[in-house]
Amino acid sequence: MRSGTRGAGVGAPRGRAAGAPAPRPRRGASVHPGAWWLWSLALGTAATRTTNPLLLTLLVAVSAYVVAARRPNTPWSRSYGAFLKLALAVLAIRLVFAVALGSPIPGTHTLLTLPEVPLPDWAQGIRLGGRVTAETLVFALYDGLKLATLLICVGAANALASPSRLLKSLPGALYETGVAVVVAMTFAPHLIADVRRLRAARRLRGRPDRGVRGLAQVGLPVLEGALERSVALAAAMDARGYGRTARVPAAVRRTTAALTLCGLLGVCAGTYGLLTAQGGTYGLPVLLAGVGAALGGLWLGGRRSLRTRYRPDTWDLPAFLVAGSGAAVAALVALAAAADPAALHPGVVPLVAPTLPLWPAAAVLLGLLPAFVTPAPDRPAAPEEPS
To answer: Which GO cellular component terms are attached (predicted)?
Structure first.
């Protein structure tokens, strides 16, 4: 009897009945968070190089597809919808301002005429009301859509890259700044999760969750929870000795400050040179020198930060492919904007229908590569039916 009882449990791990299937290993989204940010910022850079609404819509579709395919099931990854709403709000505000305040764009196709408010002489150039033309609305639509696309690309980075993992990857000199930025970035997703939870609880109790009254009764617990999390975070950081620094010689401190200051000035001067026609010769060398000096200052400044990294993220092949695909999109769209500016910036005076340029559109489609070369995110396992 004893041997039969023992034999029935041979090979069955503790805590699981004999004959139960072993849990399947799950794949994790282990792409470096910096790769996701480089990819999304590169898409945003491509969006700033064009006002073609078809290309901008294609950029939004590419970022949305990658987010839908590789977004993990975490609270901070649900902030993509908030960025979409923010982008739509920015677009609507841009159109309202164009209608109410007018635009310097001349036009001949009058859509409506609003009552115009007379302004004093010192407010010349500002108009309230008046004639609203189709050219004004189209120009405002193109301009607002460009900014909205940039916001959506930044929202894709927030939905794909873990803020805590991004904090671990920052240089030591930016650790304190990184903590503040990451806390600010995680504040909004937690607020969204709290609002959804409280609204669901109110609906279950048969109470209104919309309108001014519902917003007031939901907003107070949300702010209370945010304050409690802030106090708990401050206490935890204080208990762990946050802010301790190492002793660094005075010469190293002065060299760090000089390199950082010169690097930032070089980056500003080089960027200005690239954006102006007169600085095309010195812009790129000054920008590269400034970036090198700033990186040297960050490396020296990291010597005063005493911290270690537990299981640091590495740049593997998928991470390089993600960052490279975004860089390729930005570079090819910038080249297309220089080679054929009329295709990437459709005119509004006179009004012309925008067309989709094939080569820039093919370049934008390179941004879909992360959806196929990165590992799938963790999904909640479905409950098994009893046999």
So the answer is: plasma membrane
E-strand ranges in 81-172 read: 110-117, 128-133
Q: What is the pTM of this model?
A: 0.69
Which sign does the torsion angle of CA 7, 8, 11, 13 carry?
Answer: negative
Q: How far is CA 157 from CA 48, 114, 188, 266, in A?
A: 17, 41, 14, 27
CA distances (Å), origin 136, targets 24, 52, 349: 58, 16, 9
How far is Cα 212 from Cα 197, in angstroms, rounded to an integer?
18
Q: CA–CA separation, 197 vs 332, rounded Å?
A: 44
Tally the C-alpha atoms within 13 A of residue 120's C-alpha that lie toward its C-beta: 1
At 256-268, the pLDDT tens digits run 888 888 988 988 8
Residues 384 and 387: their CA atoms lie apart, in Å, by 9
Q: Which pLDDT tens digit goes with each residue over 46-79? A: 998 899 999 999 999 999 999 999 888 877 778 8
